[in-house]
């Protein structure tokens, strides 16, 4: 039954997260909020809602190890799994995407999170520092987007900005249904996933840290993986790289920042000695693909997936 709870929780999180994004995006546009602002805030936060709800629910149930494992494990999975799988389908020409600035932001967020963890437990004050970093990142993104929009303003052939989930014809009652479904489904799905995962950990004698780093982390990364695979089949695999970088920054600064406001997050010693550095190494692995002339080919994808399989096996067996 615990596996059923986990599977049901994941399905609910995916469906409710999508419903919340669609409802919130169309409500924001209906209220006259610019598409640019909606894309930078509503969509970004909405797509991270499943991870956020899982982490908050874990802390409320005194299972902070699952919350931290979820974020650290998701960031590792995002690089090695979410980029590894689409690389098998289509080459990702990451050096041509101009993601250097965003990548440096991800490295800075990773360094800040590790520093905060070393001085843990992560408390409200640490969380406020992380959230301040997120606010600075959003401001920087907003300014960059405005500069990009100004540069295109004189080009009549430029395409209008599209926001994920936007539907100008969506009636008000449908917006309300999406919002209610998202707001009810997310906490319910998170509750099922955390309960099921923690019960599996206890019954198998596996620590909650490992369950958070593996089962929960991969589960909450499934939407990103699905999006990346679909993009690869459409020969738009480059979309995956931007999604991974943005997701990793939000995980570290936004999700941990908000979760720490709910309750303190003691950092397990094993995570300080091992998993934080694996996460940092996974982030640094992308350096030659962002700033060099290297592309994520099929061979690189295989290497990423083998590395992730080896890391997961080590967690479970050692």
UniProtKB/TrEMBL annotation:
InterPro entries: K/Na/Ca-exchanger, NaCa_Exmemb, NCX_ion-bd_dom_sf
Regions crossing the membrane: 33-54, 66-92, 112-139, 175-194, 209-233, 245-264, 276-292, 299-317
GO cellular component assignments: plasma membrane
Name of the protein described by the UniProt record: Calcium/sodium antiporter
Coiled-coil annotated spans: none
Record-annotated Sodium/calcium exchanger membrane region domain positions: 3-138, 176-315
Main location group: membrane
Pfam families: Na_Ca_ex
Lineage: superkingdom: Bacteria
Cellular location(s): Membrane
GO molecular function: calcium channel activity; calcium, potassium:sodium antiporter activity
Keywords, alphabetical: Membrane, Transmembrane, Transmembrane helix
Organism the protein comes from: Szabonella alba
Biological process according to GO: intracellular calcium ion homeostasis
UniProt membrane topology term: Multi-pass membrane protein
